[in-house]
Structure to design on (603 residues):
């Protein structure tokens, strides 16, 4: 089984995230990390391969793929630590400023290029990137690749050339199935990502990262990046910090104080 | 006096037209009216209550999907919904499409925008005409509510998903005559490549029947690890306020409350008028899902909990004492 896992290099959720002057998410070289939810996608791919027989495992490959600048190698190194077999980075100046459509087109082009060296059975992504939180790239990737879309999986299984998922939406649980190949996104409930072991951490440092540019994946520059974007940031500003909270220490009247706060602010 | 109307032609996707419209759909119709004449789209047959709501909100016409011999459940497949909306967009000649923000609707919006080469802005709180650029601008909060950002759409057609509770729903100054028209939807093979094996409606929203859905509730009371598994006080206060019940990921993972209740970056993102967090420390993942709330109230016995940093009002104390007393006081006030 050959599985491609698109991953994203994002600002650490604990860091001071901000926009740059040109209206893009500011990405520092040292504080970026592998998008946490992508670890669930890598784990799901590894588990599917590990469930195969010895022969199947030997013929399998899990490829981590990222679109981004050289700094995004940090995310691919982390993917290697978790146990992926190979890693590809698509880097091109023309990709800067890509919106979700440009991003999906670039990932799709890289997946098609990977498919030239052997069929790709599954593309597994995380459910969202913790910077943008749009959650739409998996659906757009499915549209670009013209493959079935199975998003937000909280359970995932593959058997007899079919993939089946469960997904929990607001008030409803759905079960979906599709023939391989397919695009799947997984939630953080699908599994618990493993911790990298020492051997893999050491090995990850020297593993090869294949670098492609747009020409290598057969994509024209005008379709991605700022040139292809259909919306642009016109203003971005940090919100003023909240006033410090009005704090009450409960000495038997805390509940009444809470109710009083709601009442005097016309909130009930 | 008639409502002021913009010059746009607006298409609004109705959630749950068959069961009746809930607040997010009414909020979309309220916003749509400020932009221009509105056409609603129903992927299943609208109920009579839905039609009277559309009239009250000044909607001119509703386009109802005709699926022919297809199983009606195919509309739950996002590629099918997106294709249907594309047909409706052309039929209505609209240049703005509004959907409520949910995981499914964001995917529908993205697929529609891709297929029609339209600009897309997700999770906006406001949509307005840009004065200079000429396009529409969507504004929203990002990075767990710490930044405001506005995005201008540069294409002729703009698609927005609007987060619930961002707009106060209000009926139009004058009701309208709603024309009902059917349009044929015949999804291509790619749209139905994934098929729905089962679709099970959960029995009740988190915390039980009669409570509002978490994503769209104006009041939310949430519990975390500090509840020690007893959501009784959380539910009691929620009932006093008519609030939805929410939870942290910890509380969901412990099995204290169902997955539907999870607030956070990977659960439900909420922005109610009032959020009350009890026994919640305020980890980044949770904050990312609730920080855009109007008023934030925290109850925690640890005065150093990070949630107090983003709260407007806080009680340092045991939630098992504070919540029931607050509930009793609110019930007394409401009479």
């Amino acid at each position: 089984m050959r599985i491609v896992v698109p991953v994203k290099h994002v600002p650490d959720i604990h860091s001071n995230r901000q926009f740059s002057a040109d209206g893009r998410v500011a990405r520092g070289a040292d504080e970026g990390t592998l998008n946490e939810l992508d670890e669930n996608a890598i784990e799901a791919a590894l588990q599917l391969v590990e469930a195969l027989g010895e022969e199947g495992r030997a013929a399998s490959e899990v490829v981590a793929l990222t679109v981004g600048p050289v700094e995004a190698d940090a995310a691919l190194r982390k993917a290697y630590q978790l146990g992926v077999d190979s890693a590809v980075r698509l880097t091109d100046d023309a990709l800067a400023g890509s919106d979700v459509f440009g991003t999906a087109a670039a990932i799709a082009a890289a997946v098609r290029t990977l498919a030239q060296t052997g069929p790709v059975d599954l593309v597994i992504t995380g459910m969202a990137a913790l910077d943008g939180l749009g959650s739409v790239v998996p659906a757009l990737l499915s549209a670009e690749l013209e493959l079935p879309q199975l998003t937000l999986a909280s359970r995932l299984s593959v058997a007899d050339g079919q993939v089946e998922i469960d997904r929990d939406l607001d008030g409803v649980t759905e079960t979906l199935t599709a023939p391989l190949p397919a695009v799947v996104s997984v939630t953080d409930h699908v599994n618990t990502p493993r911790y990298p072991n020492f051997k893999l951490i050491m090995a990850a440092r020297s593993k090869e990262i294949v670098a492609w540019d747009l020409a290598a994946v057969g994509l024209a520059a005008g379709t991605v990046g700022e040139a292809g974007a259909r919306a642009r940031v016109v203003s971005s500003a940090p919100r003023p910090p909240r006033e410090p909270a009005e704090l009450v220490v409960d000495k038997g009247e805390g509940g009444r104080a809470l109710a009083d706060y709601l009442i005097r602010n016309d909130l009930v | 006096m008639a409502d002021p109307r913009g010059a746009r032609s607006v298409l609004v996707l109705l959630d749950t037209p068959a069961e009746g419209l809930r607040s997010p759909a009414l909020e979309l119709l309220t916003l749509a009216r400020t932009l221009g004449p509105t056409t609603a789209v129903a992927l299943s047959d609208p109920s009579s209550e839905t039609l009277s709501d559309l009239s009250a909100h000044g909607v001119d016409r509703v386009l109802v999907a005709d699926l022919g011999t297809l199983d009606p459940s195919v509309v739950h497949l996002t590629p099918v919904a997106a294709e249907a909306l594309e047909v409706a967009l052309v039929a209505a000649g609209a240049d703005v499409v509004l959907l409520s923000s949910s995981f499914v609707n964001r995917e529908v919006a993205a697929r529609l925008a891709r297929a029609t080469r339209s600009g897309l802005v997700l999770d906006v709180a406001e949509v307005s005409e840009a004065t200079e650029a000429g396009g529409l601008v969507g504004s929203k909060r990002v990075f767990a509510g710490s930044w405001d950002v506005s995005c201008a759409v540069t294409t002729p057609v703009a698609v927005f998903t609007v987060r619930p509770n961002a707009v106060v729903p209000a009926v139009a100054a004058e009701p309208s005559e709603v024309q009902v028209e059917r349009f044929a939807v015949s999804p291509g093979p790619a749209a139905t490549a994934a098929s729905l094996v089962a679709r099970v409606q959960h029995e009740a929203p988190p915390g039980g029947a009669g409570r509002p859905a978490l994503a769209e509730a104006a009041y939310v009371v949430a519990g975390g690890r500090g509840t020690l598994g007893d959501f009784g006080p959380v539910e009691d206060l929620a009932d006093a306020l008519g609030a939805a019940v929410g939870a942290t990921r910890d509380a969901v993972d412990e099995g204290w409350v169902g997955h539907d209740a999870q607030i956070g970056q990977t659960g439900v993102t909420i922005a109610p008028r009032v959020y009350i967090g009890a026994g919640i420390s305020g980890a980044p993942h949770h904050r990312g899902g609730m920080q855009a709330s109007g008023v934030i109230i925290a109850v925690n016995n640890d005065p150093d909990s990070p949630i107090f940093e983003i709260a407007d009002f806080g009680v340092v104390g045991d939630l098992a004492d504070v919540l029931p007393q607050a509930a009793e006081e609110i019930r007394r006030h409401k009479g």
